[in-house]
Amino acid sequence: MRNRPIPEATVARLPVYLRALLDLAEERGLLTVSSEELARMAGVNAAKVRKDLSYLGSYGTRGVGYDIEYLLYQITRELGLTQDWPAALAGIGNLGRALAYYKGFSERGFRIAALFDVDDEVVGTEVAGLQVRHLDELKEAVAQEGICIGIITTPPHAAQEVAERFVDAGLKSILNFAPAVVNVAPDVSIRKVDLSIELQILSFYQQRKQAIAAAREANRRLEGRLGSDG
Amino acid sequence: MRNRPIPEATVARLPVYLRALLDLAEERGLLTVSSEELARMAGVNAAKVRKDLSYLGSYGTRGVGYDIEYLLYQITRELGLTQDWPAALAGIGNLGRALAYYKGFSERGFRIAALFDVDDEVVGTEVAGLQVRHLDELKEAVAQEGICIGIITTPPHAAQEVAERFVDAGLKSILNFAPAVVNVAPDVSIRKVDLSIELQILSFYQQRKQAIAAAREANRRLEGRLGSDG
DNA sequence: ACGTGTTTGTGATAGCGGTCACAAGCTCGT
DNA sequence: ACGAGCTTGTGACCGCTATCACAAACACGT
Predict the structure, then answer these.
(1) Minimal CB count within 10 Å: which of A25, A99, B97, B108?
(2) What is residue A109's predicted lDDT score, i.e. its pLDDT?
(3) Mind giving me the DSSP string for B125-169?
(4) What is the pLDDT of residues B149-185, one digit of tens each?
(5) Apex CA B193: angle with CA A161 and CA B122, to 5°?
(6) Are A89 and A99 in contact (CB under 8 A)?
(7) Distance (Å) from the alpha carbon of B175 to chain A's nearest alpha carbon
């Protein structure tokens, strides 16, 4: 089992476990944790936790649980968080600025190392301690700063072109915040974060809840009338 | 088929189709579109598009394609975008401010109707044309503004409590940007957007790519040496 | 040394989601 | 009126994911 490739779904949960483990280690100073406790903290099923961790190897002790320090080390290593990952951010609008200032990135070795835009009004200004550069300088900056990850916070119509420039500059990992579909070669990883889509999904289920509530209400009234009639 | 419940995966893709269809209607003024073209624009498989749309009912014409206007109407209706959805945003930090200013929200009937915080330095200030209110005023604001959706952009340790306050105020849909696991009752929809997790997932695959490249390189050298030796 | 209680690791199973392939059905030209 | 050429709608299949259930293995008290 421990030599099989790690499933995507598991990879997506490892950061959640990592966070929970850091909490246990730093805040509470505990040494071991059971799959049940970890599952509770991560908001998932205990069996899922065990199966996920088993892909990393068998680092638990039956009857005891998992050694927190060791697990932290293994997950950190597996996620590649032992090195730091300089990132380039293209598109210095509201969202781009917020991300440039965002502390959450720098936490785990992610560091926004360069900012890019194409607007002459923005290029040259300083944001979050970095000088905004023109997108044309991307290649040099990537080489110079050792940039590995590209983040897109441009308007939608520019997203595809920026992605292509990122790929052209040698980046293989892209995080897209622009509300647009971006196509890249299969050897490039791309993940999207789309606020508007998330809201629309919530809207769908919210509407369904309201429709069900309305139907239940109508039914209740109808039955009430029938009851008083009978 | 058209009366079966719509799968979650399909719901998550409807907004993508919607965007593509708006593009086709507004930018190019087309009347019909084939599943293949729509699939290309949405970055998915054509069969998947057809199956997804078939859940809404059979609105296509064989040999021709789908009527864009009609499809737009159906998807809009199904996603509940015919009404607008006022949202509350709690946590006025960098990210909260950026979202408050973000234009992408207001596009499809989503409107940030109230901002909340607990910090006295922030409460009372004006952000994006709205006065930041204290979280204690949540209930009144929800009733007053007809708020349906809660957005969490607080630091992680405050996320769970804010979520509970949202639920307590009657909200059934929550979007969580805080890097923390939030548990709510099963009748409440919660979706999370976690920038740090996305980066860690990218990091995992990036590292694997580098490891594979390194192994390939080592192998090439080894074979080269063996070749010259033999 | 041994039994009891606990927790892991994993085979088995069920369900969901993606893809293929093709029949059904439409339009249009002749 | 009819055949050619498309495109939809969907049954069938396959792989991935989640969950269950239980044997294996450990610690600890006596």
Answers:
(1) A25
(2) 84
(3) -EETTEEEEEGGGHHHHHHHHT--EEEE-S-HHHHHHHHHHHHHT
(4) 999 999 999 999 999 999 999 999 999 999 999 999 9
(5) 105
(6) yes
(7) 7
| CA–CA separation, B141 and B138 (whole Å) | 5
Q: What HEC string does A42-111 produce?
A: HCCCHHHHHHHHHCCCCCEECCCEEEHHHHHHHHHHHCCCCCCEEEEEECCCHHHHHHHHCHHHHHCCEE
**Strand A130-134 vs strand B32-33: parallel, antiparallel, or unpaired?**
unpaired
User: Among A153-162, B6-15, B101-110, B170-179, whose mean pLDDT is lowest?
Assistant: B101-110
| A chain contacts of residue B200, beta-carbon cutoff 8 Å | 14-15, 18, 79, 81, 108
- Facing residues of B130 across strands? B127
Residue B219 confidence (pLDDT): 84
On whether the CB atoms of residues A133 and A114 are closer than 8 A, the answer is yes
Both tokens of residue B49? 């598009």
The per-residue pLDDT of chain B, averaged, comes to: 93
**Residue B211: is its pLDDT beyond 90?**
no
Q: Give the pLDDT score at A203.
A: 97
Mapping DSSP to helix (H, G, I), strand (E, B) and coil, where does residue A176 land? Answer: strand
**Closest C-alpha among B32, B42, B201, B24 to residue A12:** B201
Beta-bridge partner residues of A88: A114, A150
Distances (CA, A) of A222 to A209, A228, B9, B178: 20, 10, 36, 44
Give me the residues paired with residue A116 across strands.
Answer: A90, A133
* B98 Rama sector, left if φ>0, alpha if ψ -120 to 50, beta otherwise: alpha
Query: How many CB atoms neighbour CB B67 within 10 A?
Result: 16
Decide: B157 and A186 in contact? Cβ < 8 Å: no
Q: Which amino acid is at B173?
A: S
- Positions of chain A with pLDDT under 70: 1-2, 106, 225-230
What band does B230 get if pLDDT is binned at 50, 70 and 90?
Answer: very low
State pLDDT tens for residues A25-47: 988 888 999 999 999 999 999 99
Q: Which of A22, A204, A212, A216 to mutate to test the interface with B (most CBs of B within 10 A)?
A: A204
Distance from CA of B158 to the nearest CA of A (A): 14
- For B144, left (φ over 0), alpha (ψ -120 to 50), or beta? alpha
